[in-house]
Specification:
Helix content is 64%, strand content 10%. It has 651 residues and is α/β, with parallel strands linked by helices. Strand 11 and strand 12 form a beta hairpin.
């Protein structure tokens, strides 16, 4: 692509994206975390360096955990105690179902564990009969085994069905909780958070939580019940033959406990690195024109590679933890087979156990291996789910940005006094603005980009609370009004909009449920949208959104304005609300809205100065201050900032 920028200007602009000094930036992954070159060190030294890298990755994971728990740094994560309490509450609400799942799985496991015991008895019967047992004995034992297996199949089917009902019910309630938490987030917190972090939390983390709730939680209950009952049956068969399995399993629990202590921080770090990858990718794709204009392709590509390398280090930490765990578990499963066989042969030679007991013990070891292995794997899956759940519940721990009071507006006069606002402490973007809006007045706010126009509009509409000064409507602070009441007083429509997947009717009625077909058509007619809506295949019932009918940006803004009309507030803040509509259509749209806007207070933040021309007063904002305030004619006569903007616009 050929750049249209002057080469010197392009280089100076691109340099602002780099470090201020000429020193090369520090590597995102320290050299200590990189393995030595093949053949450069011996096996012992390579092993030592591996564990040094693992220890350093562990410290990085712990450091991230401490940062993530800080509510002042981006979106927080919940503590493990919060997650446990939340899950306990979900299960307590379904206590009867939990009991049924546990009971059904216990009976199914008991039926399955009775089979090795019966086979042992069959072996003893054959041994006592010198290899020629009575047919009745064999027949009765075989029939009993068949009955037990059929009962096990029925009980397993019932247990799986109950577990599915439990998992899906918990998942549905957890998802509703997450959605409520997301919708409750203060807008300022959403805007300051990383896009990648939010996307990762509501996609990957929701998926991980879903898997943990639907699959891992029921499997955990099944695994615990099966393992405990297997131990009981092994001891009932022969405590001496059960001892090798119990000892090795107990020793392996030390490594399981160590893993459970270290894994959460690792999984949280993995989730955070995925957020960074998403953020970098989103910024690069959305800003592709800027990237190309300043020839920053290599820099953005390198940043993406760095994010992936950091993520790979986080995954290596979790991988080592799992490998060590699985190695210990394999030893715990393999050794009991050999030890039990040797000990059992000696005990059999001393007539301490029968050949049937030894057979049953070996079958139980194999039976124990499967459930115990699945239980450990389920715990690992639960760890991933718990890590994701801590990030999801962290959304719910974001404190509200306002506390509704008891006062109610007396009138609709909106007053701002000494308004100040800072996105970062100590860096005000508004500096002591005073503004009074009388009922029915139309005020236009104009000024250069970055002057604070939109920020002022957000303070007026109660989106943000001022860091200094007050905004009142009818004598009551706007941020002390309940949101449902505030939006009937003051409403904001920006150039940012969203069309939800649903019918045209549903999209418009979001502002006021039950508005009725006449109300929806009236709102669409007012914003000049009736024509294209009637032309849709299903009219008001046409489904919009992803995978369905796609609307143009202009049509999406018309839907947003129709919602505003149904909301029916007495004060409207339009933040460049018609910026995506062509000038002729926008002019016609604004003209057609005049009848509806009569008698309302209207604040129009616009870059098209014809909007300002029609306003009662015009506020010129520059560097966070109102430098001029008056009518179009008065400001033109003053020949100041507004007059210069008007001449530039009309030329």
């Amino acid at each position: 692509m050929t750049s249209l920028l002057d080469p010197d200007l392009r280089e100076r602009s691109a340099r602002t994206w780099r470090d201020a000094d000429d020193d090369p930036p520090a590597p995102v992954v320290p050299d200590l975390l990189r393995p030595p070159a093949p053949g450069s060190v011996g096996l012992r030294e390579r092993h030592r360096l591996l564990w040094e890298r693992h220890a350093l990755r562990r410290e990085r994971a712990r450091a991230h955990l401490m940062t993530a728990l800080d509510p002042d740094r981006g979106m927080p994560v919940a503590t493990s105690g919060t997650v446990v309490a939340y899950l306990r509450g979900l299960l307590r609400e379904r206590s009867r179902l939990v009991v049924l799942v546990t009971l059904a799985n216990g009976l199914a496991a008991a039926a399955g564990l009775a089979v090795p015991l019966l086979l042992g008895r069959l072996v003893d019967a054959v041994d006592l009969a010198g290899g020629d047992p009575a047919r009745e004995v064999v027949r009765d034992l075989v029939l009993l085994v068949v009955v037990v297996l059929v009962a096990q199949a029925v009980l397993t089917y019932a247990a799986k069905g109950l577990a599915a009902v439990l998992g899906q019910g918990v998942l549905a309630q957890a998802r509703e909780h997450v959605i409520r938490a997301v919708l409750r987030l203060p807008l300022g917190k959403v805007e300051s958070a990383s896009t990648g972090d939010l996307v990762t939390r509501v996609t990957r983390d929701v998926g991980s939580m879903s898997g943990a709730v639907r699959w891992a939680l029921p499997e955990f209950i099944i695994g615990v019940v099966t393992v405990l009952l297997t131990v009981v049956f092994m001891v009932l068969n022969s405590w001496a033959l059960a001892l090798p399995t119990l000892v090795t399993a107990s020793l392996s629990l030390w490594q399981v406990r160590r893993y459970l202590q270290q894994a959460p921080a690792g999984y949280l770090l993995e989730g955070a690195t995925y957020s960074d990858i998403n953020s970098t990718l989103t910024e690069t794709v959305e800003g592709v024109r800027t990237v190309e204009a300043y020839r920053m392709q290599e820099g953005r590509r390198a940043l993406g590679v760095d994010d992936i390398e950091v993520s790979s280090q986080a995954e290596r930490y979790g991988l080592v933890l799992r490998n060590v765990l699985f190695a210990v578990m394999d030893m715990a499963f393999s050794l009991p087979r050999v030890i039990t066989l040797v000990v059992g042969a000696w005990l059999y030679s001393t007539d301490a156990v029968t050949i049937g007991q030894l057979t049953t013990a070996m079958l139980y070891i194999e039976t124990f291996y499967g459930p115990f292995d699945r239980l450990v794997g389920t715990i690992d899956r639960l760890q991933v789910g718990v890590a994701s759940t801590t990030r999801l519940l962290g959304i719910a721990e974001v404190p509200p940005d306002r506390t509704p009071g008891e006062g109610r507006p007396d009138g609709s006069t909106l007053v701002g006094r000494d308004l100040r606002y800072a996105y970062r402490p100590g860096h005000d973007v508004l500096h002591g603005i005073d503004l009074t809006l009388e009922p029915g007045e139309r005020l236009a706010i104009v000024g250069p980009s970055g002057s604070g126009k939109s920020t002022l509009g957000r303070l007026i509409s109660g989106i943000h609370a001022p860091t200094g000064g007050t905004v009142t409507v009818g004598g009551v602070e706007v941020t002390e009004l309940p949101l449902e009441l505030l939006r009937t007083e003051v409403a904001l429509v920006t150039q940012e909009h969203h069309v939800f997947r649903g019918s045209v009717r549903d999209n418009v009625e979001l502002a006021r449920d039950g508005a009725g077909e006449d109300g929806v058509w009236r709102a669409l007619t007012t914003v000049d949208a009736r024509g294209w809506v009637e032309a849709l295949p299903g009219g008001l019932d046409t489904v919009l959104g992803s995978g369905h009918h796609e609307v143009t940006p202009a049509q999406a803004q018309q839907i947003a304005l129709a919602r505003l009309i149904l909301a029916d507030p007495h004060t409207l803040v339009l933040d460049e609300a018609t910026s995506l509509i062509d000038p002729r259509t926008a002019r016609h749209l604004e003209g057609s809205m005049n009848a509806l806007l009569t008698g309302r207070t209207v604040v129009a933040i616009a870059h098209r100065l014809h909007t300002a021309h029609d306003a009662d007063r015009i506020a010129v904002v520059q560097d966070g201050r109102v430098v001029e305030l008056g009518s179009h004619d008065a400001l033109m006569a003053a020949d100041g900032e507004y007059a210069a903007l008007w001449r530039a616009w009309t030329s």
